[in-house]
Automatic annotation (TrEMBL):
<dbReference type="InterPro" id="IPR017871">
    <property type="entry name" value="ABC_transporter-like_CS"/>
</dbReference>
<dbReference type="InterPro" id="IPR017879">
    <property type="entry name" value="PotA_ATP-bd"/>
</dbReference>
<dbReference type="Pfam" id="PF08402">
    <property type="entry name" value="TOBE_2"/>
</dbReference>
<dbReference type="GO" id="GO:0015594">
    <property type="term" value="F:ABC-type putrescine transporter activity"/>
</dbReference>
<feature type="domain" description="ABC transporter">
    <location>
        <begin position="13"/>
        <end position="247"/>
    </location>
</feature>
<dbReference type="GO" id="GO:0005524">
    <property type="term" value="F:ATP binding"/>
</dbReference>
<dbReference type="InterPro" id="IPR027417">
    <property type="entry name" value="P-loop_NTPase"/>
</dbReference>
<dbReference type="InterPro" id="IPR003593">
    <property type="entry name" value="AAA+_ATPase"/>
</dbReference>
<keyword id="KW-0378">Hydrolase</keyword>
<keyword id="KW-0472">Membrane</keyword>
<comment type="function">
    <text>Part of the ABC transporter complex PotABCD involved in spermidine/putrescine import. Responsible for energy coupling to the transport system.</text>
</comment>
<dbReference type="InterPro" id="IPR050093">
    <property type="entry name" value="ABC_SmlMolc_Importer"/>
</dbReference>
<keyword id="KW-1003">Cell membrane</keyword>
<comment type="similarity">
    <text>Belongs to the ABC transporter superfamily. Spermidine/putrescine importer (TC 3.A.1.11.1) family.</text>
</comment>
<keyword id="KW-0547">Nucleotide-binding</keyword>
<dbReference type="InterPro" id="IPR008995">
    <property type="entry name" value="Mo/tungstate-bd_C_term_dom"/>
</dbReference>
<keyword id="KW-0067">ATP-binding</keyword>
Length: 378
């Protein structure tokens, strides 16, 4: 089994068959349902999913603030299920920075080391190191009540990094920052991760944030992990409709399998055309038995940037009425109403000097980059 092999060689954290059931006023709430994942050493790993899917619970189990109802959590191959948080080489940065307001930046950063009984000189040295890492040398002696939100975020990070944890857990650490600062901190966090070589496990419900920062992403829904992969894998090869819909914009086309050949599946699209439109799509897992797959109902995912408008209606994959043109600076979105009234979205990059050569209400053809069309399960 290749995944087990990988787990023993390079995994920092292995989560195996983990279930977590909370008792909430006599009602059982299953927060995690048979979760399996191996997080590699030195990687920037993101847990991504909608509110309530179990991201924070998984993080709290790794930190040791909660214990699994069933299953095991291993760190460097050793079961840590019974170790209390302070005995784990794991540290957490919370969404609320939870700094001590009456202490200086340096005192906040050194607090954990002081509790561990480290010598004064060593603490002072380490404070300087992490202040450099988060680029806050100038504010060393400032009270944390007198610095900005972005700076407080950096201090919280520095404090969590100070004891040199093997694994740093980050629970939506950027959500309190405004858009510009957040973008800047995304790049900074990524840099800190690669500078320190610490394994980062980052929680977010923001798909764009996950795509730009992560080495790998686990997409979660309703207590389960649906897919683990690189940002590219997750975006270009989603395994199911939920993943495709949660990450980026998607067009979902219903259809039936006609035939399967060399990793591609020919699908007849049910879009209400008189003559059936067809396309060849790829999928992560081909139906085991091609005969059985015949005529099976499927969904094809087409990203808006993998389709374009064409005036050559006869050779287009789909046709429809151009309902809306939305200009957004770098791109233009075209909303096309298909014969079955489904709205299909096309995104095209604007070029300097390019002219809008399509008009609302016009009949248009849509050509689809079939190499990028992806078959998914429901
Ligand atoms: P968010 O993005 O909103 O923080 P999340 O993905 O982190 O959500 P969790 O906080 O892990 O989700 O919660 C998962 C589920 O478990 C939710 O249904 C939540 O209500 C429930 N839950 C979490 N902690 C407890 C608890 N201590 N007692 C009872 N139920 C809980």
């Amino acid at each position: 089994n290749p995944s087990e092999h990988e787990a023993s060689d390079t995994a920092a954290i292995e989560v195996r068959n983990v279930r977590k059931v909370f008792d909430s006023g006599g009602k059982q709430v299953t927060a995690l349902n048979d979760v399996n994942v191996a997080i590699r050493r030195n990687e920037f790993f993101t847990l991504l999913g909608p509110s309530g899917c179990g991201k924070t619970t998984l993080l709290r189990l790794i930190a040791g603030f909660e214990f699994p109802t069933a299953g095991s959590i291993r760190l460097n191959g050793k079961d840590i299920a019974t170790l209390p948080p302070y005995r784990r080489p794991v540290n957490t940065v919370f969404q609320s920075y939870a700094l001590f307001p009456h202490m200086s930046v340096a005192q906040n950063i050194g607090f954990g080391l002081k509790m561990l009984g480290k010598p004064k000189a060593e603490i002072a040295h380490r404070i300087d190191e992490v202040l450099r890492l988060v680029r806050m040398e100038d504010l060393r002696d400032r009270a944390t009540s007198e610095i900005s939100g972005g700076q407080q975020q950096r201090v919280a990070l520095a404090r969590a990094l100070a004891p040199s944890p093997e694994v740093l857990l980050l629970d939506e650490p950027l959500s309190a920052l405004d858009y510009k600062l957040r973008k800047q901190m995304q790049i900074e966090l990524k840099r800190m991760q690669s500078d320190t070589g610490i394994t980062f496990i980052f929680v977010t419900h923001d798909q764009e944030e996950a795509l730009t920062m992560s080495d790998r992403i686990a997409v979660m829904s309703a207590g389960r992990i649906l897919q683990v992969g690189s940002p590219h894998d997750i975006y270009e090869r989603p395994v199911d409709r939920f993943v495709a819909g949660f990450i980026g914009e998607s067009n979902f086309l219903q259809g039936h399998i006609l035939t399967t050949r060399e990793g591609l599946t020919q699908v007849s699209l049910d879009v209400g055309e008189v003559s059936a439109a067809t396309l060849w799509a790829s999928c992560n897992e081909l139906p085991a038995d091609a005969d059985q797959a015949d005529n099976k109902a499927v969904t094809v995912v087409v990203r808006p940037e993998h389709a374009s408008l064409t005036d050559d209606i006869d050779r287009a994959t789909l046709t429809g009425k151009l309902e809306n043109i939305v200009y957004s600076g770098t791109d233009t979105h075209y909303h096309v109403s298909l014969p079955n009234r489904q709205s299909f979205i096309i995104r095209s990059q604007n070029r300097r000097g390019g002219t809008a050569d399509h008009e609302q209400g016009q009949l248009v053809g849509i050509s689809i980059d079939e190499a990028a069309a992806q078959l998914v399960t429901q």
